[in-house]
Amino acid sequence: MRLNKVLSGCTAAIAMTLALGASAWADTFALVTINQQALFFNQINEGAQQAADAAGAKLVIFNANNVPSAQNDAMENYITQKVDGIILVAIDVNGVKPAITAAKTAGIPVIAIDAQIPEGDNVAFVGVDNTKAGEDIGKFYADYVKANMAGTAKIGVIGALNSFIQNQRLDGFKKAVADSGQKITFLDTVDGQNVQDVALTAAENLMTANPDMTTLYATGEPALVGAVSAVTSQGRTGDVKVFGWDLTKQAVEGIDAGWVTAVVQQDPAGEGKAAVEALVKLKKGEKIEPIINVPVTIVTKENVDQFRGMFK
After folding, report:
1. What confidence tens digit (pLDDT) does each residue in 121-138 have?
2. Which helix (H) or strand (E) holds 125?
């Protein structure tokens, strides 16, 4: 009888331990991303995973493969699964708003990362002021044209026309260029669709159609990879200067060679980390700021050394 009581007590203790262990991992956060091709998005994932591990939370990641409707479907599934929070890197910032509202109604906080949701029901935004950063690189570009190209340049743009944030980066860039008063002609904007192979073909076609082009502006990592590859393959490294967003190994090599002039570098791992940490605070009943800004750096030959470790 005594042995049975001891065993019963041990069983109860084990059950309690398992319950406590389960509660330690009870928080499940979902990260709905754009694709897992771009280094930028993978770095967001890494930062988010590290923060989730540190908090003892589970992180699940959904790859939309550049399909906006897939993000909506994933959000609906996570609402059904009753996750504790959702981090969203939106493709279509307006199209995904109903899913965000549905999450809010279900009591699930959504934090938008990288792309702001206009008048959305997300509890916070983590990332960069893309319009302002676009203006910053636009001013840098115009100053470069003034100092190194006698104030005259012809520029082509490789964008991602379905990306709200990349359009913001282009709008800010164009505004700064217009305000500069330099003789800069915008030739054409082509759609790289946030896919490297598509961006490469678009960049090559852009350069072929505009042999007098002297500069390129790429609004995101796939576009920049396409631009760098196109300039290299067409032997234009001596007469086309490249400006863009999000460092890659190829871009660093171009900076070293002198024809990739400046790249806006974000802190994607920091953004992922900050988003998870904000959800953890909410779960504890703490308040968070509605906008959590993560600063950017314009990388040039002068400061590129501090970023080389990312590509080793």
Report:
1. 999 999 999 999 999 999
2. strand 124-127
